[in-house]
Amino acid sequence: MRFRRGGALWAAAGVALASCGGPLSNGYSPSLQFPQAKGVRHAACYATPQQPKTVTATITFYGWPDNTPPGNKIAHPVVHRVASGDGTWCNPTTFATEPSNGAQFPYGVKIYVPFLRQYFVREDDCTPSGPKSGSGSNGCYKIWFDLWIGGNAKSDFKSVVACERSLTPNAKVQVVVNPAANLPVNLPGPLYRDAPPPYGTCYGKPGRPI
């Protein structure tokens, strides 16, 4: 979302590719790529240190229509070539935060959002350069996580944005940084899905336009 491409990738402390349940690395990798084919069972797992710390954060969402530019490109690919993921420990979904948060939440850091019961990984930057729509259209500041919601070129714009707004909490919420691997996962996959037409599904419920 609202990202600027370019700049150096965060220097990883070590490679973090292992089979699910295997040994953890001591850091994050800036170059891992998961296959993007739908329905593929990942043979590898993006493993990160399990050193849980709870922070209080603002949560918003972005998707294909309100990314900058519209689409699924991300500023700093870590696990994925493009914004994606299924919200599981092994394949966390892309999230963005402001560049100034890089020291606290580096590219590749994994978080767990309890109210969604899904895992996310930082692969993008959140800046105020995005379009004037979507739940995070004014950019991010302080501890703020902008979570990828999904969508594609054929998605109904208004339905994606409506899903973003319906899931955005009215207040700050608790988020776990460097979470354990065994936390519950609800509805693995994109938060917004195109089926069934015309408005898709928003976190398991029928989608609707704004």
Task: Provide the descriptors you would attach to this structure in a database record.
three-stranded antiparallel beta sheet, 210 residues, disordered N terminus, 1 helix, mainly beta, six-stranded mixed β-barrel
Task: Describe the structure in your own words.
The strands form 3 sheets. A 6-stranded mixed beta barrel has the order 3-7-4-6-5-8. A 3-stranded antiparallel β-sheet has the order 9-10-11, with no helix packed on it. It has a two-stranded antiparallel ribbon with strand order 1-2. The two termini are about 20 Å apart. With about 210 residues, it is mainly beta. The protein is about 5% helix and about 25% strand. The protein has one domain. The protein is built from 1 helix and 11 strands, in the order βββββββαββββ. The N terminus is likely disordered.
Bulk shape = globular
Number of helical stretches of at least 4 residues: 1
> Strand arrangement, largest sheet?
3-7-4-6-5-8
Output the structural class: mainly beta
Low-confidence stretches: 2-26, 30-42
Residue-averaged pLDDT: 81
Q: What is the count of structural domains?
A: 1
The main β sheet shows up as: 6 strands, mixed, barrel
Whole-angstrom Rg? 16 Å
Strand content: 15-25%
In total, how many beta strands? Answer: 11
In whole angstroms, the N-to-C terminal distance is: 20 Å
Helix content: under 10%
